[in-house]
Each structure stands twice: as C-alpha cells, then as structure tokens.
Design brief:
Length: 442
C-alpha cells in the first residue's frame, strides 16, 4: 500500500494491526496534501472511524479478544478500502483512512462500503458480534494544513456518534435540531416529519405475520409489525424505528401499537378466534416509568386478556440491569403478559445467561437462518441455541425461514414454531382475516 513518496520509519506503524500509527498518519496526510496541491488533484478525503460500543465488547469479552476484534476490523478496513490510500490506527478503537484525489460522491461511495464491511457479523468463539462504526469525513481545501484537516474529520466523527452511531457524516453538513429538539442528520429529519404526519393523519398501520407450530401446523401467534405510510411513501421500520427511538416518538408509536394490537385480539375473540398477537417493545418504552400505565390502558381500552398479548423484547434489553427496566419486566409478568426474547443471538450476552431470563419463548434471529443449510457455523450455533432453550423449558421460534430446506432443518433441530416468508409474509389486518378464514374452511 505504501508508495515511494512516503517512507515512514518502523516506529510509525501500529504493532497490533500493522497499520500506520498516529504519527505515521500525520506524516502521510502532510505528504498527500502537498501532492494534492502540486498536482492539482481533487481533494484529499479523511475518514475518521470509531467502532460503536467497543468498550462494551472489550468489557464483556476481555482485552485479548478485544484486540482480536480490532485486528479483524482493521483487516476488513484494508479490504473494504480496496487498498487505496493509507490506513492508520489512531489508538484505541479509532482508525483513519486517507484517500487522495477524491470528490464527495467518491467519498460517499467509500463510506458506504466501509459501513457495510464493518457491520458484517463477527464470530468470536461461540459468540456472534454485530459491530458497527461511525465515520466523520472531511475533504481537504487549500485553506488548512494536514493537522487541521484531520481535526475537522475527528470533530465530525463526534457529531456522527451523537447521531447514534452506525453512520457517516460529512464535515460542514452537521446535525440539525428536529421538531422535538433532538439532533438529527438531514435524512432523519425527513423521516421524523413523515412520522409526525403519519401519527396525525392515520398513516400508521400494523401488519401481521403468522407464526406456525412445527408439530401440527397450528397457529402459534401472529407478530404485529408496524408500517408507516406518509403521502404515498412507505417507510420501512428499519428506517423509521431508529428515528422514532432517537426522537422519543417511539413511546407514542409503542402505545399506539399496543392498543391497536390489543383491539385486534378482542376483535378476533368476538369472532371466536383465540389468537395470540405478539407486539414488539422498544428500549425507550421499557425504560419509561409510564410503561405499565400504557399496558394497563391498552387492556382497559380493548378488553383483551393479557395472556393473548405477547411482548417481544430483545435479548440485550432483558440483560439491562437498570432498576426501571427490571421493574417494568416484573410488572409485565405480574400482569400476565407472556414474554418472548426477540432477535436472540445478536446481543452481546452469553448463552449461560439464558437461564436467568424470565421469558418462556426465544426467537432465534434470522441471521443464523439466512445462510442455512450451507454454513456449518450457523448450523452449529442455531442447533446449540435451540437445544439449550428447549432444555431450559422454553419454546423456540425460528425467524426468517424462507426456504423448504431451512424449514426442514429447523423442524429436525426441534424448533417449536416457524416464522418466515416461506410460510407467510406480514399482511394487513383484512388480508390476515381472509388468510384465517381460508384456513378455517380447510
Ligand atoms: P423483528 O421484530 O425481528 O421482526 C421481524 C422482521 O423480519 C420483520 O421485518 C419481518 O417482515 C421480517 N421477516 C419475517 N420473515 C422473514 C423472512 O422470511 N425473510 C426476511 N428477509 N425477513 C423476514 P419488518 O416488518 O421490516 O420489521 C423490522 C424490525 O422493525 C422488526 O424486526 C422490529 O425490530 C422493528 N419493528 C417493527 N414493528 C415494530 C413495532 O411496532 N415496535 C417496535 N418497537 N419495533 C418494531
Ligand atoms: Ca420481533
Ligand atoms: Ca426478531
């Protein structure tokens, strides 16, 4: 990667990753900036990266494994950057990529590649991590020196982090205040606007996806999945839930989905159909003191029995030891709501902690299912999780089952129930009513 115009001394390399160190980076940036001016190149782009939640990874896995993660991520960076430019480790979990002759569009392209490469799952022993990075990007101009350019990228990284991580931000396009006074990037502002409009004008809806028992094909539950339609544009949950969480709107959305889901339970009951509806609960809801009030309000307004409303809570939330979360979880159990651990296997907790979780159902994350039957590692992990959960007396739902082969493998493994496009897609209420009627008539 090193070309002749730059010859750092050996002390300018980082011993763990083999990348340039901080000093080597400063020297490389100076040389490249000079070359940019001399040869009238397009700007020099500085990407300053930081691994999100690295402290958590380090604390839970130990420093040795943490070093392994850093080395692997450095390796990914080298591949993702296509060996263009220079890579440096600035200490800790901070990296810099320098790319000369790079305009904004090219830089954006590189940033997307970096985000994608860094967010691939990473296996450490029996654990699967889902790393992510934040990136601050600065493009050189002829008014500043190398140190100032690097500093600008570093400061932009701080803004990218404040946006919640897993994203890149260009210097000068910094964050703005949204309707509710939260810092948002420009794209997020649009989503926030859409969410407000949807809340005000009935643009929110729930789609329901059937989950079927392996043993006899009977209906185990339907999962309620939120949809946001604003002026003809459909925003997928992966886009609007993070913004809703960041702005606090998720509390209102969560109350709305609890109530709407509970009303559907009642409607089905009135129609002599006893069907459990699973509703996703977010971190913000579970850390809110008024969560139990919202739950009781949903029961009171809908007349639905708690035992038919299953609450899906992610693994990492269960592990949250804060008083308020634990109090809310206890309240949920006392009120008689069944609990399921959602997206199991994607958090940072260890398998042994399963025995301490007060849920009777585990949902095995789609990440383990997607590459079945071809990936033996995914197979081994999925099997271990299914068996352990069954041994602990829990039921296991496999998520994201798309093919007949996956269905067969998971049935054989002993999964209790299956959810996925292979069996049924999420559908609007009316379509689910038809789907249920069709099954009854069989
Ligand atoms: P999730 O809780 O893991 O929900 C399952 C997601 O997997 C849904 O995506 C569903 O459409 C998708 N899915 C189901 N079967 C398959 C399959 O066979 N293949 C593939 N590729 N995907 C499948 P969706 O509806 O886009 O929701 C995404 C996420 O957004 C959900 O993941 C959940 O975390 C969140 N979400 C959705 N609705 C709500 C809600 O009302 N409240 C909260 N807090 N989060 C929600
Ligand atoms: Ca879920
Ligand atoms: Ca899930």
């Amino acid at each position: 990667m090193l070309t002749s115009y730059l010859e750092p001394s050996p002390s300018q390399f980082d011993s763990l990753t083999g990348l340039l160190d901080r000093e080597g980076c400063a020297r490389a940036a100076e040389t490249m900036l000079a070359k940019t001016a001399q040869e009238h190149l397009r700007p020099l782009a500085v990407f300053w990266l930081n691994i999100d939640r690295f402290k958590q990874i380090n604390d839970s896995l130990g420093h040795l494994a943490g070093d392994g993660v850093l080395a692997e991520l450095a390796h990914r960076l080298a591949i993702a950057s296509g060996n263009q430019g220079y890579l440096a480790r600035m200490g800790g979990d901070e990296f810099v990529l320098l790319v000369s002759d790079c305009n904004r569009a090219a830089a954006e392209h590189i940033a997307r590649d970096l985000l994608a490469a860094m967010s691939q799952p990473l296996d450490v022993g029996t654990m699967r991590l889902y790393p992510s990075v934040s990136i601050g990007i600065a493009l050189s101009n002829d008014r500043e020196n190398a140190r100032e350019l690097l500093e600008r990228a570093d400061q932009t990284l701080v803004h990218a982090k404040r946006l919640g991580g897993a994203q890149y931000l260009f210097a000068g396009e910094d964050v703005q205040l949204g309707r509710l006074g939260k810092l948002l990037a420009r794209e997020e502002l649009e989503v926030e606007e859409a969410l407000h409009k949807a809340l005000e004008s009935g643009g929110l809806s729930l789609h329901y996806q059937p989950i079927l028992q392996v043993a006899d094909g009977s209906l185990e539950a339907v999962e309620a999945l939120m949809r946001c339609n604003c002026e003809g544009t459909m925003y997928p949950p992966d886009r609007f839930i993070p913004v809703a969480e960041k702005t606090g709107l998720i509390i209102r959305l969560g109350e709305w989905s609890l109530l709407t889901g509970a009303r559907y339970v009642s409607k089905l009951l009135a129609d002599k159909q006893r069907i459990k509806v699973a509703i996703n609960v977010s971190r913000a809801q579970l850390t809110a003191p008024k969560f139990t009030q919202a739950l009781y309000a949903a029961l009171a307004c809908s007349n639905a029995p708690a035992e038919l409303i299953e609450l899906e809570i992610t693994e990492s939330l269960f592990m949250d030891s804060s008083d308020i979360v634990q109090r809310n979880i206890r309240a949920v159990l006392e009120a008689g709501f069944p609990l399921a651990i959602d997206d199991f296997g994607t958090g940072y907790s260890c398998l042994a902690s399963l025995k301490d979780l007060p849920a009777r159902k585990l949902k095995l994350d789609r990440a383990f299912i997607t590459d079945l039957p071809h990936n033996p590692r995914s197979f081994a992990i999925a099997k271990a999780i299914v068996h352990l959960a069954l041994d602990l007396g829990m039921s296991v739902v496999a998520e994201g089952v798309e093919t007949i082969e996956q269905h067969a493998i998971l049935s054989e493994m002993g999964a209790t129930a299956i959810q996925g496009f292979y069996l049924a897609r999420p559908m609007p209420e009316r379509q689910l009513d038809e789907w249920l009627a069709m099954r009854r008539s069989r």
